[in-house]
Amino acid sequence: xxxxxxxxxxxxxxxxxxxxxxxxxxxxxxxxxxxxxxxxxxxxxxxxxxxxxxxxxxxxxxxxxxxxxxxxxxxxxxxxxxxxxxxxxxxxxxxxxxxxxxxxxxxxxxxxxxxxxxxxxxxxxxxxxxxxxxxxxxxxxxxxxxxxxxxxxxxxxxxxxxxxxxxxxxxxxxxxxxxxxxxxxxxxxxxxxxxxxxxxxxxxxxxxxxxxxxxxxxxxxxxxxxxxxxxxxxxxxxxxxxxxxxxxxxxxxxxxxxxxxxxxxxxxxxxxxxxxxxxxxxxxxxxxxxxxxxxxxxxxxxxxxxxxxxxxxxxxxxxxxxxxxxxxxxx
Amino acid sequence: xxxxxxxxxxxxxxxxxxxxxxxxxxxxxxxxxxxxxxxxxxxxxxxxxxxxxxxxxxxxxxxxxxxxxxxxxxxxxxxxxxxxxxxxxxxxxxxxxxxxxxxxxxxxxxxxxxxxxxxxxxxxxxxxxxxxxxxxxxxxxxxxxxxxxxxxxxxxxxxxxxxxxxxxxxxxxxxxxxxxxxxxxxxxxxxxxxxxxxxxxxxxx
Lengths: 331, 205
Fold this sequence. Notes:
The structure holds 2 protein chains of 2 kinds. Chain A is an alpha+beta fold. Chain A contains 9 helices and 8 strands. In chain A, the strands form 2 sheets. Chain A has a 5-stranded mixed sheet, with no helix packed on it. In chain A, strands 1-6-3 form a 3-stranded antiparallel sheet, with no helix packed on it. The relative contact order of chain A is 0.06. In chain B, α1 crosses α2, α3 (42-58) crosses α4 (68-88) and α6 (118-127) crosses α9 (156-178). Classes of the chains: A alpha+beta, B mainly alpha.
């Protein structure tokens, strides 16, 4: 960088906005060039001139409509016309004076800066949150270290014990995973470990059994959800052709349906068999009861019965004798 | 000075709560227009104002040329304006090591501290063209030459030369008003301004 380039950049060297590379180059040049250092001095003097403003006491005097002492009023007026900073400050002083002269002018607490608010409120909140998070992290880390320490202590203790004495013991029916012999572990400790393993296996077996049972229950619920419901009260279903023992009932298999079947007496209880066209039993149920309207009501889920002809047989639950037979046509 | 004002000053300086409350209320009301611009350190500013008021009253500066209320009002305005200016006063980059190589420590308080009349500096500034003042205000406000060139739609090189010419004009105006000849024995070592060709010269002030 030569003298011309350096001198041109001096104002921005002073206001600190030169890029890092330029800044360093100008500094290096100034360190070796006396003429440019003198130019820097002049630049500072120019800065002082351009950063010149009316004294604050002059502004206050002008705000009160008085003639300022020590400052040419004409010069002050010209400066005010060209300096937005002084003009704004004079306006503030005038506003303050108006507040003095008129007590009826109400003032409200000014808005604090966001920075101040952040420091006063958000800052402390952030600090508290950070401290809480650090505490929690520390707690987790301490737990981990404690666990590691505990484990290391157990292994260390086991390692320090004498060699185990092999003793015959009954094996469980299910083969347990082999217990690793730990050098120096005592027979009592090995027995204790074996006992724990067996206990764990029992626990696993119990859990598996409970899981299987739960799976069966779920499957049962799913199946029953699709099966017909006897004595159903839900009626938001399709219109069906009500059958009798001598007339075929008709319903649509693709939609839910509630099939009323005529009964001979109220309160009669029957077991139910549904047979397909080939005479194969496709579903059985029990507890079908005739209501006050002298009807048996069977509710079918959509899709449970494929299209075809079916026979519904109602049996006496005690004797198993056939009491009623109905024909059903599923379309 | 009215007896009421004198009594108020006496009671305030004694620290009587009613008088202190009254003066504090005046201070808060007088300082209110400045609050928004001094919000970052408002509490400190108010405390500075209270201290200044206490000092002036304690030293007997209030002579009753106006009412105590008006006097305090003006003191508050004056102090708040000074606070505003100290807040916006530019802190120059640390270049002391360079200046130290040139001459004995040059205080950064500037030439106004050399007992030159501030009125003189205002007159110097008054002689500098308005566009020079505007450009240098941007520099004082902390704009880079790239930002200034964008704002003014002028090439960076042209802008730098313009600013340099303005600097020379300001220093020359100051020397004229001081009555000294060119250089005035202080700037003899400064090189003449760079001779630019092409674009820069076409924009020369």
